[in-house]
Design brief:
Length: 317
């Protein structure tokens, strides 16, 4: 693996021939989908044969980006080059996409453990979308409304609507340029932050009733298990941004949302408020992320998972 500059990343993209697959992460958010769609559109504008490859289902809330590019939900047959966007670790890929040879990774996560030939990381950026914004400008591709909508989705999503501390002047300048193309950014923000599906609404109701506080109220846990979901009559849970909930409670520094992955393990999403580096905690369990938002997978029963989490969090809180 070779770490490269953004200029070298641009050169690598320009040199690509044949079919290109732009790979997004599992449990996709606006950043990976928006970055993926924007880069795919830009490569197509350069006359290249690029498509989006999903590691998971395309989220309905971003349906306004659907159909802008060719999308694969399964790894296609044949020869292709893979470029991954916003993918921090192999854990964030599907079983199928984890097996791919990745040519280039473009990402903004503090720790990136994806195996690949070349990697460009800028962890100072609030969103992978900011990196793709810069790459697209270096490629000399004009920002049209489709590219701008996708990039705005990416940047607004990961900066929490430009309110997280990761937001800086560059984030706002990129957003300003995107807004100037004439996109309906208010509607995009509504789709990202204000609209919940009925399934999400049901899950949110459940969330408020199962929230637990630990460690003198500084840690909060949302323990979704198959039993809890079943009892609430939820068979296809849509989690949406429920991971943001526990940290909103006064006095809570870290919120941990636990949900079933398979029979033996749980997926954990961390969100912290002021000082706890949850990326470091997620890493001890083989995951990763950012200072204030991270994720990992932990094996065990729900009680074992909670105990492992609290034992680790207690060291820093
Ligand atoms: Mn991201």
């Amino acid at each position: 693996m070779k770490t490269v500059t953004i200029n070298k990343a641009k050169e690598l993209l320009l040199a690509l021939g044949g079919e290109i697959l732009v790979l997004t992460h599992a449990h996709p958010d606006g950043d990976t989908i928006g970055s993926g769609v924007a880069l795919t559109l830009a490569l197509n504008k350069l006359g290249k044969n690029a498509s989006l490859l999903l590691s998971d289902k395309f989220p309905r809330r971003f349906s306004y980006l659907w159909g802008k590019v060719k999308i694969y939900d399964k790894v296609p047959e044949g020869e292709y080059t893979v470029v991954a966007v916003d993918v921090p670790s192999p854990q964030q890929l599907s079983e199928e996409t984890r097996g791919l040879d990745i040519h280039l990774v473009l990402d903004h996560h503090l720790q990136n453990t994806v195996e690949c030939e070349y990697k460009y990381i800028d962890a100072t950026r609030a969103a992978a979308g900011e990196i793709i914004f810069r790459v697209i400008k270096l490629l000399g591709v004009e920002l049209d409304e489709d590219i701008a909508s996708a990039l705005y989705t990416a940047i607004s999503s990961d900066s929490g609507g430009f309110v997280f501390s990761s937001t800086d002047g560059d984030t706002m300048r990129a957003a300003a340029e995107l807004i100037d193309t004439g996109i309906d950014f208010a509607d995009i923000n509504r789709c990202i932050f204000d609209t919940v599906s009925e399934a999400q609404f049901e899950l949110q109701k459940l969330a408020y009733s199962i929230l637990e506080r630990h460690l003198d109220g500084k840690a909060a846990i949302l323990p979704f298990t198959n039993e809890v979901l079943e009892k609430a009559g939820i068979d296809q849970p849509e989690y949406g941004d429920v991971a943001q909930f526990p940290r909103r409670l006064e006095g809570v520094e870290v919120g941990m949302t636990i949900r079933p992955k398979d029979e033996w393990s749980y997926r954990v999403s961390f969100r912290s408020n002021k000082y706890l580096n949850v990326s470091q905690i997620a890493e001890t369990f083989g995951g990763g992320g950012h200072y204030f938002a991270a994720a990992c997978v932990i094996e065990g029963t729900i009680d074992e998972v909670k105990e492992k989490l609290l034992r680790e969090v207690e060291k820093y809180i």
